[in-house]
Design goal:
single chain, alpha/beta, Arc Repressor Mutant, subunit A, ten-stranded mixed beta sheet, two-stranded antiparallel sheet, 12 strands, about 40% helix, disordered C terminus
């Protein structure tokens, strides 16, 4: 025969359990304890216990169908009518300021190479360009330290205006204490005004978070907690990484290739250092956006030269056996501007010549290589002087006329510069001469499509 029910003991136990929870469940337990203490009928006691169990099953008094309704409402809130999006017009892809043609806003990039090739300095040049165009960059550095980054940055910026912009909008974080426990809103909110975030490097960031580089689940956790939220908020990320033993892919977890949207493998077919200029080739090995990003970019770097990555016509092996990319129309624009403004910096050329920055830099590079423009160092900057006029119509490698090329680019033909035009302030030793300002060609609205066809066959990977 079972022992008689001790209602007081049962009520006291329910109150003790109520102290461990809060809100509605705690109130229900306290009310039930009071009823048990005062209720004499076993039938009524059983009824109250049944009701309490039902409360627990349905989650704080919510009906059994409420969970499905909440899930349905959440899905409906995220639903997009794709046909309506097509009819209304799919928005053009947005590129980061200074990263036209290859650095897409809100996408996830992985840049890998053997140690010592030049990932950090090459990416820092890109970061400075984004800042120079008004963007904001955050660098999460858990590998090199502030002194090494400062030494590299000192080599790159050309003028005090760029230095001031970097002081304001190039946010460098040395060995920060990262945490997977931060809420998504808190992490994204801390970097809300950044256009680009660089993680240097993958292995050390994962280690700082207590994660293993060769474990897919750990890498997925890092991406889910630290990178995906930034991507959803529209921030571009670049993760720097080293290659594996085979040298042709990122080392460690295979999830690195799966969870990042664009992969670039870096190589230096022509070595570089402080005294000697070389080449850094960015070869795209994967992308999820067919035709949106060039197959290969080339960056002139070292020996006082710190150029941007620009599209190449070859496959990125550095041999240049094929016909090189030759933006002849922009070459003429750049030549005319340097003739007008002798002693100008690259930053001034980019500011005053109409067109995409990456292509303008490539045009300037070709003019220097072929002897049309002379480049002289001055402090942290380089000044440019015309040696020989370049005109597209006289280019043996480009048989089309200037007028035809201008139509291909979708802009007006270049107009001769007036000989009475005044030199920009601070440039040149003579007194200013009155005259009309330097004419600016109309925007090259069709330039992107034409140039893309030249260097990329549109193949996705």
């Amino acid at each position: 025969m079972s022992a008689p029910l001790d209602q007081n003991a049962l009520a006291n136990e329910l109150r003790r359990r109520a102290e461990r929870v809060s809100g509605r469940p705690a109130d229900d337990l306290c009310n039930l304890a009071t009823l048990i203490r005062t209720e004499a009928s076993p039938y009524e006691l059983a009824r109250w216990l049944t009701e309490a169990a039902e409360v627990g099953r349905n989650g704080d008094g919510v009906g059994p169908d409420q969970g499905a309704q909440d899930a349905r409402a959440a899905l409906e809130g995220a639903r997009v009518d794709l046909i309506e999006r097509i009819r209304d017009g799919i928005p053009e892809r947005e590129y980061l300021p200074g990263g036209d043609g290859w650095l897409i806003a809100g996408k996830r990039y992985l840049v890998f190479s053997p140690s010592g090739v030049g990932k950090t300095i090459g990416t820092l040049v890109v970061a400075v360009e984004v800042v120079r165009h008004g963007g904001t960059v955050a660098i999460i550095d858990v590998e090199n330290g502030a002194d090494e980054y400062a030494r590299r940055l000192e080599l790159i910026f050309e003028d005090q205006e760029t230095a001031a912009a970097c002081s304001e909008r190039l946010r460098y974080y040395e060995y920060p204490a990262l945490s997977l426990e931060w809420g998504e809103k808190d992490w994204v909110g801390a970097l809300a005004d950044c256009d680009l975030i660089v993680f240097d490097s993958s292995r050390h960031v994962l280690s700082a978070l207590g994660l293993a580089e060769d474990a897919n689940d750990d890498y997925a956790k890092f991406m889910g907690r630290m990178v995906m939220p930034l991507s959803k908020a529209g921030t571009t990320t670049i993760i720097l990484d080293n290659t594996g033993h085979d040298g042709d892919h990122p080392r460690g977890a295979s999830a690195k290739r799966d969870l990042n949207e664009v992969l670039f493998e870096l190589s230096a077919p022509t070595p570089f250092d402080l005294e000697a200029e070389g080449r850094l080739v960015w070869r795209r090995t994967r992308q999820r956006f067919a035709g949106a990003i060039p197959k290969a970019l080339e960056q002139r770097i070292g020996g006082g030269t710190y150029g941007l990555p620009v599209p190449t016509a070859d496959g990125g092996d550095g041999d240049h056996d094929g016909q090189p990319f030759r933006p002849t129309f922009l070459m003429e624009r750049v030549s005319r501007y340097v003739e007008f403004d002798p002693g100008c910096s690259q930053a001034k050329v980019l500011k005053n010549v109409e067109g995409r920055d990456t292509f303008i830099v490539g045009a300037l590079r070709l003019l220097i290589d072929e002897g049309y423009i002379r480049r002289e160092p001055k402090g942290n900057s380089h000044l440019h002087y015309g040696v020989t006029e370049y005109r597209e119509a006289e280019d043996d490698l480009c048989p089309t006329s200037a007028q035809t090329s201008a139509q291909n680019f979708g802009v007006d033909s270049p107009r001769p510069l007036p000989t009475t035009a005044a030199l920009p302030k601070g440039e040149g030793s003579g007194a200013e001469v009155s005259g009309p300002p330097l004419p600016k060609p109309s925007p090259a609205s069709g330039e992107t499509e034409v140039l893309t066809r030249r260097y990329d066959d549109g193949e996705g990977s």
